[in-house]
Amino acid sequence: MLTQEDIQNLKEAFATKNEIKELIEPLATKASLSNLSIEIVNIKEIMATKEDIGRLSFEIVNIRETMATKDEVREIDEKFNKLIDSIDRLTKKVDDYFQETVSTTRALKRHEKWIQQLAAKLDIKLEY
Question: Do 91 and 81 share a structural domain?
Fold first, then answer.
């Protein structure tokens, strides 16, 4: 027969129903593992593969080869600035020429008017 002390020793040695429930509860079930499997498949579909990364690094190398370096950009910028300066100088010359042409045209009209006035006073008929 079991004594009270034996029963107490058995209680301490073996887990109770509640203790077993507490131990089992955090464990994964078939359903939760199935959901986890689906989530892993979804993650795999989103993530890049080694091949994807390899293609991406190849594309980056190609982009780097076609991009201008800082020195090339500076050189282009300097050439562009020289071109703008040349255009500014040419624009100034065209404007100066236009102003000179306007001034010359006014002087020519004034001289023509004076010649006509002189011809009228001297009674000379001008032929064009």
Answer: yes
